[in-house]
Amino acid sequence: MRLSSEHIRFIAEKIAHELLSSKLVTFSQGEGAVVAVASKRLAEEIKLERSVDAEVNRLMEEQDDEISFYQADRKQLFWMIKRRVAVTEGLILDRDDRMSNLAHKILDDLYEDDLINYKISENLVKNLISKAILDYGKRQEELEDKVHEKLRHYKRSVIRGTEEYDILFTKIYEEELAKLGV
Question: For residue 44, which of 87, 91, 78, 88 has the smallest C-alpha distance?
């Protein structure tokens, strides 16, 4: 799951909701404070990934002549370079490990700010947060797949990756979100 700034609020609210509905956790300053802390940490994670992507793009631009000369697969090259840059910048690329690490950071922030109370294992609380993030991501992927499928069966052919496709994708995606009440 690739985190995006458009989803920060929804993910943070899902985390707060999952923690409260578990009945294993209480909030000392209300749900809004928990959402704010989770949102801040999610935004930092997105900023880190964007920074890594920008560095990879910069490195690729520096070597653009060689990449073109050798007709290298740019997408594959991007990921090869990203794996190296991610290590130096502290970005975890494995989805499950990344979400677990992010959940741990969110839990640490909540605990340090005295926003959360629990009498169970810290690992169980971290797992609740991680599960909320992964569940949200799974739901988003399913929704995106549904939109891509609608575009495949669109009355006229629309080529994926074009500006028209992106505009239609966003429009249909927002319509699907509205149907879900999001």
Answer: 91
Residue 6 is predicted with a pLDDT of 80
pTM equals 0.83
pLDDT along the chain (182 residues), means of 10: 81 95 96 97 96 95 93 92 96 93 97 96 96 91 90 86 85 83 66
Dihedrals phi, psi of 28, to nearest 5 degrees: -85, -25
Nearest-angstrom CA–CA distance, 144 and 148 = 6
Read off the DSSP letter of residue 155.
Answer: S
List alpha helices for the chain, DSSP H. 8-21, 31-62, 64-69, 74-89, 95-112, 122-152, 163-180
Q: Give the N- to C-terminal CA distance of the chain in Å, as an integer.
A: 19
Collapsing DSSP to helix, strand or coil, 26 comes out as strand
- Among positive and negative, which fits the CA dihedral 32, 122, 130, 19? negative
How far apart are alpha carbons 60 and 52 in whole angstroms?
A: 12
Q: What pLDDT score was predicted for residue 120?
A: 94
Q: How many CA atoms does the CB half-sphere of 2 hold within 13 Å?
A: 5
CB-CB contact of 40 with 105 (8 Å): no
